């Protein structure tokens, strides 16, 4: 059996991984520019070499066996390491190439990162970017994410985390809404009576702490509108729908332009995830030159943006 393993063709493993990722033999054939019959024969040859069934076939879908799952996970790791080695060799005296899968929070991505990433792509045209906008902290390896930007209290221990900056949160509302509720909006004891606009994350249903020096006030929100999309919440706040609880980078421009006004600006909001990190896998030898180039670029650009 070990002899069979040692003679495995890397192309067969690559094809097997593609079959699982695409979900069908036909799609795998298209991606590799071969016939479906060729894919089927290659899969049978791989199973024969390993003397085990890797995929259970049905009319509707393909299902991995336990042995197939093991080969798939290790196959992914092998291909990633090969890509990383290839990219690092290409980088010796050359422009970074390859593909980087980047996950960014929706609000930060739409309001801050768009011009930064566009400029990065212009600077490194041979590097392919796959950008996902998501507020959820997922398993990077399972989600096939190379780099993730996340605002969290503590970074996950399984990843390499580079701190970019602290993120402050703000209460703000439109001038029209504040004019109609001026009394309550100026009193931390009464503000809980107002309608709040905030993230649908469960932690916003709990109490937050308003701190002003030695003075602190617990505030339980009354959410009238919730969403994971910060740009939508920002628009809602500008349309007089309530007091918004949002990161400072989301509201800064509209506060400066007068579209929004800070509520209780003398208070600091505590108890909310408040640090921006760049996350990568805990296996630094897999980090390609492209990944390193992107993370260094993001760290430098975001520190500049948040220091302004």
Provide an overview of this structure.
The protein is α/β, with parallel strands linked by helices and 308 residues long. The chain folds into 3 domains: 2-89, Arc Repressor Mutant, subunit A; 95-167 and 275-307, Periplasmic binding protein-like II (D-Maltodextrin-Binding Protein, domain 2); 169-270, D-Maltodextrin-Binding Protein, domain 2, CATH 3.40.190.290. The protein contains 11 helices and 15 strands. The strands form 4 sheets. It has a 5-stranded mixed beta sheet. α2 crosses α3, α2 (10-22) crosses α4 and α3 (25-32) packs across α4 (36-50). The longest helix has 26 residues, at 66-91. The termini are far apart. Residues 1-5 have low confidence and may be disordered.
Write the layout of secondary structure elements.
Blueprint: H1 2-6, H2 10-22, H3 25-32, H4 36-50, E1 55-57, E2 62-64, H5 66-91, E3 98-104, H6 106-123, E4 127-133, E5 147-152, E6 159-166, E7 169-173, H7 175-180, H8 182-185, E8 196-199, E9 207-212, E10 215-220, E11 223-227, H9 230-238, E12 243-247, H10 248-257, E13 261-262, E14 268-270, E15 275-281, H11 289-307
Parallel strand pairs: 3-4, 3-5, 8-11, 8-12
Antiparallel strand pairs: 1-2, 5-15, 6-15, 7-12, 7-13, 9-10, 9-14
Helix pairs in contact: 2-3, 2-4, 2-5, 3-4, 6-11
């Amino acid at each position: 059996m070990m002899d069979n393993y040692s003679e495995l063709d890397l192309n067969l493993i690559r094809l097997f991984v593609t079959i699982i990722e695409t979900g069908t033999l036909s799609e795998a054939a298209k991606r590799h520019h071969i016939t479906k019959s060729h894919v089927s024969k290659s899969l049978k040859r791989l199973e024969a070499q390993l003397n085990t069934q890797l995929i259970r076939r049905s009319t509707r879908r393909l299902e991995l066996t336990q042995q197939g799952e093991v080969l798939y996970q290790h196959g992914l790791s092998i291909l990633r390491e090969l890509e990383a080695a290839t990219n690092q060799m290409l980088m010796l005296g050359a422009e970074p190439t390859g593909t980087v899968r980047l996950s960014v929070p929706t609000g930060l991505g739409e309001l801050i990162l768009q011009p930064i990433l566009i400029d990065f792509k212009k600077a490194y045209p041979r590097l392919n970017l796959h950008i996902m906008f998501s507020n959820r902290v997922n398993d990077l390896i399972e989600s096939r994410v190379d780099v993730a930007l996340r605002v969290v209290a503590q970074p996950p221990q399984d990843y390499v985390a580079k701190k970019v900056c602290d993120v402050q949160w703000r209460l703000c509302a439109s001038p029209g809404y504040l004019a109609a509720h001026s009394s309550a909006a100026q009193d931390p004891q009464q503000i809980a009576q107002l309608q709040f606009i905030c993230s649908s994350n469960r932690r916003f249903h709990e109490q937050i702490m308003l701190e002003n020096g030695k003075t602190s006030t617990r505030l339980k929100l009354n959410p009238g509108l919730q969403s994971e999309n910060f740009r939508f919440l920002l628009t809602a706040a500008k349309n007089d729908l309530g007091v918004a609880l949002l990161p400072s980078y989301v509201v800064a421009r509209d506060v400066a332009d007068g579209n929004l006004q800070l509520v209780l600006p003398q208070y600091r909001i505590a108890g909310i995830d408040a640090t921006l990190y760049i996350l990568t896998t805990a296996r630094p030898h897999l980090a390609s030159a492209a990944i390193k180039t992107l993370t260094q670029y993001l760290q430098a650009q975001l520190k500049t943006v948040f220091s302004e």
